[in-house]
Specification:
CATH topology of the largest domain: Heat Shock Protein 90
Helix content: 55-70%
Strand content: 5-15%
Number of domains: 3
Oligomer: single chain
CATH superfamily of the largest domain: Histidine kinase-like ATPase, C-terminal domain
CATH architecture of the largest domain: 2-Layer Sandwich
CATH class of the largest domain: Alpha Beta
Structural class: alpha+beta
Number of helices: 11
Shape: elongated
Order of helices and strands: HHHHHHHHEHEEHHEEE
Length: about 425
């Protein structure tokens, strides 16, 4: 009925018409009552049938039904519940039209009632008491309709605000994703540019070595196919490096506060943990022996950023609750787990962390970094209390089936790996 208002109004008109017609037919057959039953039936039809169009044109329906009931009262030909039609029409005007029109309809109703009672033949003498019941019905009907109109406007305003808020949140989230992607591109540029530079330098050095060897073995050397290939590799690498620098210039356009420090990796987790402890967060760090010593630079950087953002969320949203960080390799994936005890029921929902008013978009950024490598990110309240953030980043394998970069067990003293296999902070151990 809500989806088809015309059908609902039509059924309401039929429901009013049936008792009106039945009353007129029965009264005519038994010759009871006074007045012309034919006029009464016409009055009943005019009071009920227009109700089917009450929401399409409320003012016109109110005018037609009001005139019909005025004629019926003035001539003494009111049949059955015919006055209900004008009352429903008045309610519709109050509920769907502005207050100025609805108050005008109330005033017209009062005037019509007074005139109809004065000229009605059944009332030999005018009495003010005759107006009390109709006036009460009109007033109550208008109050109900006006209240419905105000309520509907209030709900519509709330819905509009909710839609606007959703649009703003979607826009803010998209802006955060774009910003995080730009930041990732900046960071990966340094990694890729380093490798391309190495290719260009090594290709140039190999070409010069080949030329020197050619001069040593022949008096008039001619460039070999390998020399041409090395020259082509060197030229292509330098062109790629120039394009990367041009791309970074576009990404950094307008940024005056760029971070010029070297890009971090998992070998700097100890320093990060110490920073968090100094800020009041008790962190327990565990790096499994299965984690390769030399991860791919992009994976290494993203893993560090994910843990950094998760610990920042703990500091901001969990009041520095005790936290455990576990880094390990599971089924060929680098698994990062950050679990905190949390403050209990007041721990904010994930949506609150990414709302415009929260001041950050940590989960959005983590999701973008994991998606960059085709991984998975899961987060939410843990069964033991607190909050869990788990990221899985796929790792490649070498021809022997070992994870890329080798194992910590093979090279525990790798250069630049300033970390212990297990660094325990000043906190009580607990199970994930």
């Amino acid at each position: 009925m809500h989806d088809h208002p015309t059908m609902a109004d039509g059924l309401l008109a039929v429901a009013l018409l049936i008792p009106v017609a039945t009353t007129a037919i029965v009264a005519t057959a038994t010759e009871r009552g006074s007045g012309n039953r034919t006029i009464g039936l016409l009055v009943g039809l005019c009071c009920t049938l227009p109700i089917a169009w009450r929401r399409r044109d409320p003012v016109t329906v109110f005018a037609v039904t009001g005139v019909a009931v005025f004629v019926g009262i003035a001539t003494g030909n009111v049949v059955g519940p015919s006055p209900l039609g004008p009352m429903i029409a008045l309610y519709t005007v109050a509920a769907w039209c502005d207050r100025r029109r609805s108050l005008s309809a109330v005033g017209v109703s009062f005037v019509g009632i007074v005139i109809a009672v004065v000229v009605a033949p059944r009332f030999a003498q005018f009495n003010i008491k005759l107006l009390l019941a109709p006036a009460a019905f009109v007033t109550v009907t208008w109050l109900i309709g006006d209240n419905v109109r105000v309520r509907r406007a209030y709900v519509a305003q709330l819905e509009a605000r909710a839609e606007q808020l959703e649009r703003e949140q979607a826009t803010e989230a998209q802006r955060a994703r774009d910003g995080e992607r730009t930041r990732i591109a900046r960071e990966l540029h340094d990694v890729v540019a380093h490798h391309v530079s190495v290719i260009a330098v090594q290709a140039g050095a190999a070409r010069m070595v080949a030329e020197q060897e050619g001069r040593d073995h022949a008096s008039s050397p001619s460039p070999s196919m390998s020399d041409d290939m090395l020259a082509s590799i060197e030229s292509t690498a330098r062109q790629a490096l120039a394009e990367l620098r041009r791309l970074l210039g576009v990404l950094r356009k307008g940024d005056d506060d760029l971070d010029r420090a070297p890009q971090p990796g998992l070998h700097q987790l100890n320093a990060l943990v110490e920073q968090m402890r100094d800020a009041g967060t008790a962190v327990d760090l565990e790096i499994d022996d299965s984690v390769p010593v030399a991860l791919p630079p992009g994976v290494d950087l993203s893993a560090y950023r994910i843990i950094q953002e998760a610990l920042t969320n703990v500091l901001k949203h969990a009041n520095g609750a005790a936290t455990r960080v576990v880094v390990r390799v599971d089924q060929g994936d680098l698994e990062l787990t950050v679990h905190d005890t949390g403050p209990g029921p007041v721990w904010p929902r994930a949506a609150d962390r990414t709302s415009p008013g929260s001041g950050g978009h940590g989960l959005v950024g983590m999701g973008e970094r994991v998606a960059l490598f085709g991984g998975q990110l899961s987060h939410g309240p843990s069964r033991s209390g607190g909050y869990d953030v788990v990221a899985r980043i796929p790792l490649g394998t070498d021809p022997d089936g070992e994870p890329v970069g080798g194992s910590n067990r093979e090279d525990p003293d790798a250069v630049g790996r300033d970390r212990a296999h297990h660094v325990r902070g000043p906190t009580t151990r607990f199970d994930l």
